[in-house]
Every structure is written in C-alpha cells, then in structure tokens.
Amino acid sequence: MKRIMSSVVILAVLVVLMGFVGCSSAPKGWLADYEEGQQLASKNGKDMLLFFSSEDTDGVSTQLKTNIFDTKDFIDAASKDYVLVHLDYSDSRMAAVQVGEDATEEQKEAAEAAMPQLEKDIATAMNFSVAGGAMPVMLLTTPQGYVYGNIPYDAAVTTPEQFLTVLADNKENGDKLKSLVKAVNSSTGVAKLKAIDELYEATDPAYSYLLSDLYGMGPELDPNNESGLRGKYAMLDAYAKATEALFTGDAATAIQVMLAPVEDGFCSDVEKQELLYQAAYFCSLIGDSANMFTYLNQALECAPESEMAASIKMTIDAYNLANENAGVTAEGME
After folding, report:
1. For the chain, first and last CA: distance in Å?
2. CA gap 121, 124 in Å, rounded
3. How many of the other CB atoms lie within 10 Å of CB of 113?
4. How far is Cα 91 from Cα 57, in angstroms, rounded to an integer?
5. Cβ pair 52, 137 in contact under 8 A
6. What percent of the chain has pLDDT over 90?
C-alpha cells in the first residue's frame, strides 16, 4: 500500500492557502468558475484543465496566457477534449473586496458582490492543495475532479503546439483513471470496494485525498471483509475525518477518530500502529503527554518489527531523554 499523506501535511497546505491575496480574469474560451466547469465536463464527458494563476505576482501566468492559453489555436484544439477553467488569485483581486469605511456605496456593493466568487475560488484552490506561492499550477482532472496530471511550468514550452503535446503525453494516465472510475461506478458490493482500491492505488499520492468520499464505503460494501480491505479504508477514512476536525481546531475529535478503527477488528497490526502513532502526534499538539506516551507505546507493541517501529522507539527515547532532568519518563506517564 502506498504511503498515506499525513493529515497534518494536508492541514498545513490548507493553512498556507489562507494567506492568499488575490474577479477572476479568465481568457476567452475559459470558464472562471470550477463548479460550472465540473458540471460542463460531466455533461459532455470531458476532462478539465485547471489553470491557477496569480497574474500580477507569479511572473509567468500573463506570458502563458499571451503565448498559449489565449490563442485561438490552443483554445480550439484543447476544448475538444477539455473544459478549460482559469482561476486567478492576484493581489488586485483581494484589494477589490477590501474597502474602507469611507468607500462609496457603489464600491461597497461591488466588493460585496465579488466576495462570494472569491471565497468559492479560494475553496477550490484549497481543495486541490494549491498554495499561493506556487503558482502557476496546471492540473488535469477527470470530470469528477480526480487529478491525473500536474503539469509543471516549463519555460521551454512557449507555443500552443508544445503545450498540446504535453496534454497528449498525459492522455494515457487520464484514460486509465477514467476507466477505473467507470469500474467503481458500475460495480457493487465487494467488487466495488476492490475497484475503489484500484482507483486509489492508481492515483498520485499527492491527490489521493480527493477520493475521500469513497473511503467510508467499506462497511456497507464488504461487511464480512471478504476483500481484506476494510482495515485499509477504515484508516484512510479516519485520516480524512481527522483532517476535517483539525482544520476546525478540534484535535480531541481528531484523536478519537484515529483511535476508532483500532478496535474494530479489521485493521492489521501495522495499520493499528499507524493509527496509534498519528493519535499520539495529535496528543502532542494539545500538550497531552500522558496519552501521547500511552499511544506511542501501544503503537510500538502492535508491530515491533515494522518499518515504523524504529521511528516510534526513537520518539519515545527522545522524550524520555528530554524529561530525565524532570524525573519524568514515558513509562512513568503510563
């Protein structure tokens, strides 16, 4: 099983996004609303090309638009297979919604009218883990919004033809992911959970969290764990729900969410170890040292020969060493 993205890492990305400063100026042929793009993609059976920019700060988005994305050649060719969505987060966009008390009623109304779309666009960037300082970002997704291609900015790609070649290079990945999505949608029961697993394993780990709406289906699809996947998806579902709790500042709920699958009888020893280790980390965030050490020791006991075991033992030893002068040890806190 691929390494699961830590919920803390995801949370950190979301926090960075709150620093966004930046009306989306989508070029002709491009939509300026993700939800509208997704609806159109689903209706027409097309994928999406998402272009996240900060035109007045990132230094290259304007050039990309002028040389490639705004051109008729590119729009005509790309729009045959993709719904084109451009979301911009320029400083000037944020400035437009920040009006002072001395602003005219017209300015205040304009700012109020612009705010809902800005909030939607920030939520979209957060959903795709697009950080403000990393733009431009260009993603290829299925109609469901599952990412199969992250196209890095390349200064050598300067023409529509070159960028269309880049899109073509990602077609195989896109076709594979869409085939797996079709298998998920067309199957039931244990077969559906297995199809979900194939889709998860084929998805870039950086974007597998976008499948979180599928993780909690294990108990319904495979009540007797015929697939052997119940534990895996209980753990993935716990990560997703704990992330939501942490984003609202509720570390206590995040801890309980991580602990819940440990006792359900479906998780392997290694899966239990990871759940307990993550719960221990969450305890450290709120200064709950006693439970932190309890969960660390339980995690170590679950699978003492695992790859993670050495790191857990080092963590316990480091805390013990740090607390020796105070006369407190992990064992003493149990």
Report:
1. 32
2. 5
3. 11
4. 7
5. yes
6. 75
**What would the pLDDT profile of 19-58 be if each residue is shown by its tens digit?**
443 344 455 789 999 999 999 999 999 999 999 999 988 9
Going across the sheet that includes 147-151, the strands are: 82-88, 47-53, 137-141, 147-151
Secondary structure element (H or E) that encloses residue 161, with its range: helix 160-169
Residue 64 burial (CB count, 10 A): 21
As beta bridge partners, residue 88 has 53
Q: Which two tokens stand for residue 37?
A: 């793009």
- Tokens 């890492």, residue located: 9
Give which of 140, 5, 36, 148 is closest to 78, Cα–Cα: 140
Closest CA to 90 of 57, 135, 129: 57
- Please state, in angstroms and as integers, the Cα–Cα distance from residue 205 to each residue in 44, 48, 233, 301, following that order: 28, 19, 15, 28
Q: Which one, of 87, 109, 98, 90, lies nearest residue 37 by Cα?
A: 87
Residues 6+ apart with CB under 8 A from 310: none
Q: Which amino acid is present at 93?
A: R
How many angstroms separate the CA atoms of 262 and 260, rounded?
6
User: What does pTM read for this prediction?
Assistant: 0.84
Considering just the CA atoms, what is the radius of gyration of the chain in Å?
23
Q: 124, 173, 129, 174: which is closest to 6 by C-alpha?
A: 129
Token digits of residue 277: 């280790």
DSSP state string for 52-72: EE-TTTSSSHHHHIIIIITSH
Q: How many C-alpha atoms does 302 have within 13 Å on its Cβ side? A: 24
From CA 65, how far away is CA 153, in angstroms rounded? 13
Tokens, residue 188:
């039931």
Among left, alpha and beta (phi > 0; psi -120 to 50; other), residue 145 is left
Residue 126 identity = M
Q: Exposed (0-12), middle (13-18) or buried (19+): which is 317, by Cβ within 10 Å?
A: exposed
Max Cα separation, the chain? 72
For 298-318, write each residue's pLDDT tens digit. 999 999 999 999 999 999 998
